[in-house]
Amino acid sequence: MAKLSKNDSFMDLSDYGRPLAVAAAARLKNTSATPIQVTLAFGVAGLIAVFSILSGYYVVAGIFLILKSIIDAMDGELARMKKTPSYSGRYLDSIFDFILNFIIILTIWTVSNSPLWAAFLAFFCIQLQGTLYNFYYVILRHQSSEGDRTSKIFETEVPQAYPHENQRTVDILFKLYRLFYSTFDKIIYTLDRKAPQAGSFPKWFMTLLSVYGLGFQLLIIAFMLAVGLVNLIIPFFIAFSFFIFLFVCIRRIFLTGQSQHSIIYRD
């Protein structure tokens, strides 16, 4: 199922691995492989990238970061193909992203000349960038006539587990998800409270904003590792966050249409 109608679809620079993910998921559709197993696989790919950075194999690390991004899109595709959606998979995916992002930045810190405080700030900036992208993207999906409206941006209640998953597992993963993401969600919402009433966003805006998607962030890291710019990765993502205010200003000043929808969702 597409996340947006054809009229609202835009060039998502962070979603370059989607075609390969769809093809790979199709091959797994009639096997015993589960979406959760695919989620675990992208976690393994991320850890291999970390080990490669520590070992000085930066090109190999970049390859596995891109592979991680591709596999990251596979679990959702496989769940849709097998018609086995789960809250466990949804939360686990986001939790793994958070933890791996933190480990990757700390690993880059250990092999670079950046101070520790800068590494923590860069991680915070990366998460904030991704949250801004998700915030506007899921609003667009909710406004789209055929958009996916399943992911909430503010989750305050534990959802009821699907029949094929365990409620206790969902409860635990939900609490972890809230612990990791709620602060970033609140910060972005505070910056642009009226965004949910702004209506649909133009394609050019979403394409530009997609540089803040996790897939594109990993692509930037992979490229900088490969060309020997490891010392600039942490400063780059700190500086890259200044565009957050530019995107918010563009939305608030120029993209102010009204919408009938008031419910917002998070990816």
Explain what you see.
The chain is an all-alpha fold. Helices cover 66% and strands 0% of the residues. The chain is built from ten helices and no strands. It is globular. It starts with 17 loop residues before the first helix and ends in a 13-residue tail after the last helix.
List the helices and strands and how they pair.
Blueprint: H1 18-28, H2 35-54, H3 58-82, H4 87-110, H5 116-143, H6 167-191, H7 203-209, H8 214-226, H9 230-240, H10 242-254
* Strand-pairing-aware structural class: mainly alpha
Based on CA inertia axes, which overall geometry fits? globular
Strand percentage lies at under 5%
> What is the number of beta strands?
0
- What is the count of DSSP helices, taking H or I runs of 4+ residues? 10
Give a quick account of the main beta sheet: strands, pairing sense, barrel closure.
Answer: none
Quick summary:
This protein has helices at 18-28, 35-54, 58-82, 87-110, 116-143, 167-191, 203-209, 214-226, 230-240, 242-254. The chain has 267 residues and is mostly helical.
Keywords:
267 residues
